[in-house]
Write a structure and sequence with these properties.
By secondary structure, this protein is α/β, with parallel strands linked by helices. The protein has a single domain, classed as P-loop containing nucleotide triphosphate hydrolases (Rossmann fold, 3-Layer(aba) Sandwich). The protein is about 40% helix and about 20% strand. Strand 3 and strand 4 form a beta hairpin. It is globular, with a radius of gyration of 17 Å. The N and C termini lie close together (about 10 Å). The model has no long low-confidence stretch (mean pLDDT about 90).
């Protein structure tokens, strides 16, 4: 079983990228589970054509220990198993602690033993890597971490901070850094800036994604690019990225 976590600055395109990769791997015959680790609980929206799903934390709040595994795990496009960790009641509680609680509840209910996924993709809110937001990097969870970034300064800054966190966990035998994913925003000297970052953190760029209107069009259709425009250049880029990620794992 391959467990892979995706981090990056908020709004960099993690959920879109992860969802496209999930569909591609599922279409190739892998049994894929995507776990959204963002309090907004929107990671799997494209996989479910915009249909919202109950989060693990909401279900635990309403049903307690009576919550069923099938309530927490729902099937999406191409058979991808969808999970949303969720977050605390707005203004109350710690979102990071919520991620810990959600992942522990899935483990308690035997999600991996029941569904036996080949690949688990964690989509993690990456501006903050303390506490629960670093949970997917820890032992028993992700083996590899990939960081999405553009050439924008704040995105690069966030990526560098995440890389430091991964390095600290790697020293304890936890997740290793798989590389950077350049999600282009067409800023000046973008690829050079990200290549420089890769050198600074002793890593590499594993894939590049163009800025494309097809991404927005597919999202308006409540689909991934891979599903809505399977023959497009953008879909081909997602497929190539999926191949590179599997090879890195």
């Amino acid at each position: 079983m391959k467990q892979i976590a995706f981090y990056g600055k908020g709004g960099i395109g993690k959920s879109t990228t992860v969802s496209n990769i999930a569909v591609i791997l599922a279409q190739q015959g892998w049994k894929v589970m995507q776990i959204g680790c963002d309090p907004k609980a929107d990671s799997t929206a494209l996989l479910r054509h915009g249909e919202a799903m109950d989060t693990v934390l909401d279900l635990v709040r309403t049903k307690g220990n009576d919550v069923l595994l099938e309530d927490m795990v729902r099937e999406g496009c191409a058979g991808v198993l969808c999970v949303e960790a969720g977050g605390p009641v707005p203004g109350l509680g710690c979102a990071g602690r919520g991620i810990i609680s959600a992942l522990e509840k899935l483990k308690e209910k035997g999600a991996l033993e029941v569904y036996r996924p080949d690949v688990i993709l964690y989509d993690v809110l990456g501006d903050v890597v303390c506490g629960g937001f670093s949970m997917p990097m820890r032992g028993g969870y992700a083996d590899k971490v990939f960081i999405l970034t553009s050439g924008e300064n704040m995105s690069i800054h966030a990526a560098a901070n995440i890389a430091v966190a991964v390095e600290n966990f790697q020293k304890r035998g936890y997740a290793q850094l798989g590389g950077l994913i350049l999600n282009r925003r067409n800023v000046k000297n973008e690829e050079e800036k990200v290549q420089e970052l890769a050198g600074d953190i002793h890593s590499r760029i594993v894939g590049c994604l163009d800025r494309s209107d097809l991404v927005t069009e597919a999202e308006e259709m409540r689909m991934t690019v891979t599903e809505a425009f399977p023959d497009s250049r953008m879909a081909a880029q997602y497929r190539k990225l999926a191949e590179e990620i599997l090879a890195s794992c």
